[in-house]
Amino acid sequence: MPERSEKSGGGESTLTVLLALAVNLAIAVMKAVAGVITGSAAMMSEAAHSVADTFTEGLLLTALRRSGRAADREHPFGYGKERYFWSLLAAVSIFVSGAVFAFYEGFRTVFGAPEEQTSPVVGYVVLAIAFALESVSWAQAVRQVRRGAREEERSFLEFLRVSDDPTVKTVLLEDSAALVGLLLAFGGIGLHHLTGSSLWDGVASLLIGVLLAVVAFTLASTNRGLLIGRQADPHLVRAVWAELRDAPEVEQVVDLLTMAVGTDRVLLCARLDFDDALEVAELERACVRIDDELRQAHPELDEVFLEPVPRTDQALRARVLARYGDVRL
């Protein structure tokens, strides 16, 4: 498995989040002012969208800072999963601050008294400026994902699916939703302007709410899986399995457990059936050597535990079968 460059870690993720934070803060102010001037529900929903995104970036910065702390006695496997926790809160923020307000504005406009639109040109100008600014943040997130995908020899979508760094995925989905939301708001304001009916403005606001709810659910599902304890990258698992199987002292890999304990940090537990002819001292040296070789080949391995076991142990076999199904031990 290709090694990840240092730049794919916290440094570039921090740059991506900081850029998104600055952009969203500026856009939130512009949209709020334009929403008050135009009286557009879609514009106010977009203002809430940008406010939610701004809170989200603040939570992601907290995630990056706190997840980088070193392991200690209380947390021997480190604080890597803090990134997943704060990213989960970011997903909740998108739904509560953005989607709920957009739904409120949409229902109020669709089912309430008709509203007149004022100064729609202001709305068009603000949306155009916001689209340009959001494109800058979106382009940075896309560059980071493409670089990571290229380093790991994956497609763009596959990298997003298996990545254990939720920050860049959150920013990319946020910015993508922001661009789509701006187009929806433009359509709502434009149709209101052309037809004189505020119904279109309300429909656009409801669609923005649906968009934000889908993004929030997607991000929450991703971080839920990482918090529960997701298996490491399948490429890494297969590579480690092959290297353990090929070790001269190992007769068979009985079981292999991995878990992402942070971004680019993996916990590995392997149960191995060693050659019965090995003496105790030889077995100890073999474990030390295998551990060192695995860490050299895969720097993301944070902790490695190797357990000698007989493959004929029926209790162990039953546990492995219960987890994986009918596999050969």
Most strands sheet: 3 strands, mixed
Low-confidence stretches: 1-9
> What is the average of the pLDDT values?
87
CATH architecture call of the largest domain: Up-down Bundle
Work out the helicity level: 55-70%
Q: Indicate the CATH class of the largest domain.
A: Mainly Alpha
Oligomer: single chain
Taking Cα atoms only, what radius of gyration do you get, to the nearest Å? 25 Å
Question: CATH superfamily membership of the largest domain, which one?
Answer: Cation efflux protein transmembrane domain
End-to-end separation: 25 Å
Shape: elongated
Number of strands: 3
Strand order of the largest sheet: 1-2-3
N-to-C SSE string, H for helix and E for strand: HHHHHHHHEEHEH
In short:
It is a multi-pass membrane protein. The protein is mainly α and 329 residues long.
Descriptive report:
It is elongated, with a radius of gyration of 25 Å. It starts with 9 loop residues before the first helix and ends in a 5-residue tail after the last helix. Strand 2 (265-274), helix 9 and strand 3 (301-308) form a beta-alpha-beta unit. It has a three-stranded mixed sheet with strand order 1-2-3. It has 329 residues and is mainly alpha-helical. The chain has helices at residues 10-38, 41-67, 82-111, 120-151, 156-162, 166-195, 199-228, 234-246, 280-297, 314-324; strands at 250-262, 265-274, 301-308. The protein contains ten helices and three strands. The protein has two domains: 6-228, Alpha-lytic protease prodomain-like (Up-down Bundle); 234-324, 2-Layer Sandwich (Alpha-Beta Plaits). Residues 1-9 have low confidence and may be disordered. Helix 2 (41-67) packs antiparallel against helix 6 (166-195), helix 3 (82-111) packs antiparallel against helix 7 and helix 4 crosses helix 5 (156-162). 69% of the residues lie in helices and 9% in strands.
